[in-house]
Amino acid sequence: MPLTLWLSLAAICAMGAMSPGPSLALVLRHTLGGGRFNGVTAAIFHTLGVGFYALLTVWGLGALIAGFPLLFQLITWSGAAYLAWLGVKALRAGRAGAFQPDEIVTNRGQAAREGVLVALGNPKLILFFVALLSQFVTPDMSALAKAIIVLTAMIIDGGWYVLVAVVLSHSRILPWLQLRAHWINRITGVLLIALALRVVAGPLV
User: Which domain of life is it from (predicted)?
Assistant: First the structure.
């Protein structure tokens, strides 16, 4: 995979990971309720679920492109519509959303279990990955290239949420984010809508 194409993949994965939603709320809740290690645990196990969906998507996309191009196109457009919906939702969120987690006491086992379940229990991740990875997967793509795509998605997702857990374990950071949540939501919303339009425009490869 050319470096420029991989950088595009990494940037889009980062945008998806950073978008406010249940995954961010999960890591925040376990960080605030159980400390830094619980937050990191939730982040790592969430990454395992994300990797599972990414792997399924990469395996299936090549077959869809080759055998069912019309079906692939319809699924891709569904993914783009989902991205646009996420963008509109973020624009309308204002100051509310993932930066207002429930403050409960949690333990490491609960953090690990919920980290996986939040990822696997969100089938919309499939739509997200279809929209994202349709820009990069081709029918003749090698197993190594597919592995690079999956690992990139996992490392960026895990790296981001581990960073969130580490940073937010310092109690002074969360109030700063809460005050600026409306700007974070607006920027995220615009970027997700732009990504949806890019998906509709066609693949990068």
Answer: Bacteria
Taking alpha carbons only, the member of 165, 56, 161, 50 closest to residue 116 is 50
Residue from 94, 102, 90 nearest 178 by CA? 94
Mean pLDDT by groups of 10 residues along the chain of 205 residues: 82 79 77 82 91 84 69 72 75 60 66 83 71 75 87 92 85 66 71 74 58
| Ramachandran quadrant class, 97 (left: phi over 0; alpha: psi -120 to 50; beta: rest) | left
Q: 177 and 78 in contact (C-beta within 8 Å)?
A: no
In this structure, what token pair is assigned to residue 11? Answer: 């940037």
3-state secondary structure of 185: helix
> 170-184 b/e with 16+ CB inside 10 Å = b?
eeeebeeeeeebbeb
| Tokens of residue 124, six digits | 């919309």
Please report the pLDDT score of residue 97 as a whole number. Answer: 52
Instruction: Tell me how far the alpha carbon of residue 196 is from its chain's centroid.
Output: 14
- Assign 3-state DSSP to the chain and report helix, strand, coil percentages, each to 5: 80, 0, 20
Residue 86, SS3? helix
